[in-house]
Design a protein that fits this description.
Length: about 190
């Protein structure tokens, strides 16, 4: 087992990121718009189970709705600002997805999803990454995401990010609505919070 320490503020080019991502397929990585490489901790059992439930519920709705595609946490998107980001769960309108070439779909899709979910994990709290996740949610909006949910299970809160609106904070909700971005989608939070 090899351990590496990456200095804070370490920068690489987008091309180097793609080469590294292909070589290190067991590591989850992101690249900020400024070229800062972010290595993310593997998901623990609790966060992995909750992420799976989030993806499953959105996938079940999308299979019936048929207006978009669902992606899991291992999908990296190239945002318009140049950052390479991988939301825990995401959804893209089918017409936007179909505008991409096969090569773009097979690689890191060069677009921001329409909808994203980020789940705050115990390792995010341990490593004091909550403010980083809030900044990431704002970056999603700044790059065209229409709706985003930052879910914090340990304190049972949801931050709702909407394009062109103030952040809304909900305390211990039972469900969340996909609003006009995901019409008819209701997320059951019973096994999440």
């Amino acid at each position: 087992m090899k351990t590496i320490t990456i200095p804070k503020g370490f920068r690489i080019t987008p091309e180097q990121f793609e080469q590294l991502a292909q070589a290190e397929q067991l590591t989850r990585m992101e690249l900020t718009k400024d070229g800062e490489l972010i290595i993310m901790s593997p998901t623990g059992g609790t966060a992995g189970r909750k992420n799976s439930r989030l993806t499953q519920q959105l996938r079940n709705w999308a299979d019936i709705d048929r207006t978009g595609e669902v992606f899991d946490s291992s999908t990296v998107f190239v945002l318009p600002n140049g950052a390479r980001r991988s939301p825990d769960v995401s959804w893209i309108k089918l017409n936007r997805w179909n505008q991409l070439t096969t090569a773009q779909q097979d690689g890191f899709p060069p677009l921001a999803p329409d909808f994203v979910i980020e789940l705050v994990s115990p390792s995010d709290i341990k490593n004091q990454r909550y403010s980083d996740l809030q900044a990431k949610m704002q970056e999603y909006l700044d790059n065209g995401v229409q709706l985003g949910w930052l879910i914090e299970p340990s304190i049972k809160t949801i931050e709702i990010y909407r394009f062109g609106a103030e952040i809304e904070i909900l305390n211990h909700p039972q469900t969340l609505s996909g609003e006009d971005v995901l019409p008819g989608f209701i997320l059951d939070l019973t096994d999440i919070l």
